[in-house]
Amino acid sequence: MDKLSSIKAFTKVVEHGNFSEAGRELRLSRSAISKYVIELERELGVQLLNRTTRSVSPTDNGQAYYRRCLAILADLEEADMAVTQAQVEPRGMLRVNAPMSFGTLHLGQAIADFMGLYPELTIQLILGDHFVDPVQEGFDVTLRIADLASSSLIARKIVPARRVVCAAPDYLARRGTPQHPNDLRDHDCLTYDHLATGTQWKLSGPDGDHWIQVSWNLCSNNGEVLGDAAIKGRGIALLPTFLVGPDLQAGRLTAILTDYKAPDLALYAIYPPTRHLSVKVRLFIDFLVERFGGQPAWDRASAAA
User: Fold this and answer.
1) From first to last of its 305 residues, what are the pLDDT tens digits of the chain?
2) What letter does residue 106 receive in the DSSP assignment?
3) Which residues form the HTH lysR-type domain (predicted)?
């Protein structure tokens, strides 16, 4: 059995959802593609695909195996590039996972510019705020905004992700402006439900650390939703400046409790450790550092406010 050819056939069938399209891309007959997949299933002892007369889809085992196959094929592609010294013009697919709000507000434009630099590279960008395993999901680069815990993965810091406590001027006019973190207990708060501390906010200032169990009237897994609610005067939010910097500058939001600071977070690029870092990953991360490093535009906007 030609294991590599079987893996290639299987991944193309999953991508296209049928054997004929996979065969056309690999320049093989439909029956040859089917034979490769059947041999693979026989060797593994599991069913990888659900087959109907109209479509083909991976089973749960097939989906997990597909992700690992993508990583294997990517490693082979990178090994070929290293041997042939194809270092100047990266080719192939770069799979990136990133947080939703940062992706829509800032990363989309950056990736469009990156594509202009390397037209032979194709990029698959998956946005979401849920935790993913980069290796299991087959991502080349995963961007995370966190106080990063240690792991077997390699992380490179791209840019700090400073957060501010803020509210709309009309909310503060109605309810008063908190002068101390403890005052937040008497206010409507808008909180992010993926915080490592749950619905507790930690703020540190001249009188030490304060852990505030906020009373929230809106909890969401998306920062843009919380920002929109804050602008509408629905409560006080703890949000990153990459999201609310322009709103602070325009006066739609006002930073409060400025003598107190939330724990530092940062945007990290995470990738699996390999002896040979792929050219496409290295170039992409270097591009992000150059694009967002130093004092980013959103912090300049919030500082101006």
Assistant:
1) 688 989 999 999 998 888 988 898 899 998 999 999 999 999 999 999 998 877 889 999 999 999 889 888 887 877 776 665 445 577 788 899 998 888 888 999 999 999 999 988 899 998 887 776 666 677 888 898 877 655 556 788 888 888 999 999 999 999 999 999 999 999 999 998 766 566 789 999 999 999 988 888 899 888 899 999 999 999 999 999 999 998 998 999 999 999 999 988 888 898 876 655 678 888 999 999 988 877 777 776 555 54
2) I
3) 1-59
Is 0.85 surpassed by the pTM of this model?
Answer: no
Do 148 and 229 belong together in one domain?
no
Residues contacting residue 74 through CB under 8 Å, at least 6 positions apart? 92, 93, 95, 138, 140, 278
* Tokens (6 digits) for 242: 């990459």
The Cα 34–Cα 36 span in angstroms is 5
Last residue of a domain, one of 82, 106, 141: 82
